[in-house]
Write a structure and sequence with these properties.
Blueprint (H helix, E strand, L loop, with lengths): L20 E5 L3 E5 L16 E6 L4 E13 L2 E14 L1 H22 L5 H14 L1
Antiparallel strand pairs: 1-2, 3-4, 4-5
């Protein structure tokens, strides 16, 4: 059970960056904000090395997973464990796809094309279909 916050002692305030920071907003564009006006979100962070989608007519569930080492009889292996599940409406998923596509295009323009086993497999399948 979680402990209730003490009535006599206020909760510890979130840490603030030392300098002014430039924040990016997809709608408003980049803005500069004084350090005193910035509060970090107190939210959990997760790392996902793989992703799975489950789609219905009303929502899309995205499961991010990470590999963890396990020891099984006569072998050492890794297994994928879910790290986070995110549920999105189709409209929010479309907005996320649009934002990610734009951000990745900018990233690749600066740093080069991102290639993964999945993107190479999809490209090979497309090339086979054209023949």
């Amino acid at each position: 059970m979680a402990k209730a916050a003490s009535a006599t002692r206020p909760a510890k305030p979130p840490t603030r960056p030392a300098k002014a920071t430039r924040l990016s907003d997809e709608i408003e564009g980049a803005v500069e904000v004084a350090a005193a006006d910035v509060t970090h979100l107190n939210t959990p962070e997760f790392y996902g090395a793989s992703v799975q989608l489950f789609v219905s007519s009303t929502d899309i569930s995205v499961i991010f997973a990470r590999q963890v080492p396990v020891i099984a009889k006569n072998t050492h292996a890794g297994m994928m464990l879910p790290a986070a599940v995110v549920h999105l409406s189709p409209g929010t998923a479309k907005d996320l796809q649009t934002i990610l596509a734009r951000q990745l295009a900018e990233y690749e323009a600066e740093w080069g094309e991102i290639q993964t086993a999945y993107t190479r497999r999809i490209a090979a399948e497309g090339a086979r279909k054209k023949k």
